[in-house]
Backbone:
């Protein structure tokens, strides 16, 4: 089995394989999340709304595609920094929206479902990206995964933007 993290850092991005280059990539994502947390608390434009969360998810997908296709180490760091920010924004807004929008009698179950589905989807995506990556290459595999999610997020954004009912206000026709 190939160690894709070493491959990405050494041959694909021109960094070292001793851990420093890979550690910096991980740190870029973590710092992006940290700065994102501060900005989420201070920026009015990033208040939790379904459209905002979905737009952040779209940006996250684009950033992951950029990272997957990048051959420049510095650019990869920037992509992962932005990705860390967007990942935190999406997950925290989703959690907040479920807490605010779910009917009181279903709130606990819906928070549990959100948590379980987020964790399960991450594991499933990791397995499919890894398995597909061993066949067609990690860059192509990660790109395909991000494109699929991007298409789903754009479709969801279109659905929500046209006035889809919220959890707190069910569709009167059904």
Residues:
């Amino acid at each position: 089995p190939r160690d894709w993290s070493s491959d990405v850092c050494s041959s694909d991005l021109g960094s070292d394989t001793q851990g420093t280059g890979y550690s910096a990539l991980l740190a870029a994502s973590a710092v992006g999340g940290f700065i994102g947390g501060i900005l989420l608390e201070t920026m009015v434009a990033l208040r939790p709304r379904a459209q905002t969360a979905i737009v952040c998810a779209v940006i996250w997908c684009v950033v992951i595609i950029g990272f997957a296709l990048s051959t420049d180490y510095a650019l990869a760091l920037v992509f992962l920094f932005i990705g860390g920010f967007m990942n935190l924004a999406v997950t925290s807004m989703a959690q907040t929206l479920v807490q605010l929008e779910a009917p009181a009698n279903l709130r606990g179950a819906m928070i549990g479902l959100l948590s379980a589905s987020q964790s399960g989807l991450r594991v499933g995506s990791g397995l499919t990206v890894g398995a597909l990556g061993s066949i067609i290459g990690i860059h192509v595999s990660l790109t395909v995964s991000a494109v699929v999610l991007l298409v789903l997020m754009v479709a969801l954004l279109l659905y929500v933007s046209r006035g889809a009912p919220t959890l707190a206000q069910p569709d009167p026709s059904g």
In short: The first helix runs from residue 4 to 12. Residues 1-6 have pLDDT under 50 and may be disordered. Residues 99 and 154 are 24 Å apart (CA to CA).
